[in-house]
Specification:
- This protein is about 0% helix and about 75% strand.
- With about 70 residues, it is mainly beta.
- The chain has one domain (about 1-70).
- It has a 4-stranded antiparallel sheet, with no helix packed on it.
- It is elongated.
Length: about 70
């Protein structure tokens, strides 16, 4: 499992705030074949819009590693 978060903050004529979170889970099934689950979350605020934007993604799939360095 891996997780990564990024935070951005900008202040000019319009201020912005952005938080991004990326999560990935890889379950080895057979040899180099694995089940993958990715869940990503995004929050964004812009002073000109005056609203909070929220987005989430969920992806489920199969992955195959051609090289051992990707496992």
């Amino acid at each position: 499992m891996s997780s990564q978060a990024k935070f951005f903050w900008g202040v000019r004529q319009r201020s912005t705030l952005s938080l991004q979170n990326f999560n990935s889970l890889r379950i080895r099934l057979l040899g180099k074949l694995a089940a993958t689950l990715d869940a990503n979350f995004f929050l964004h605020r812009d002073s000109q819009v005056q609203a909070l934007a929220v987005k989430s993604e969920l992806q489920v799939g199969l992955g195959y590693a051609w090289s051992e360095k990707w496992l």
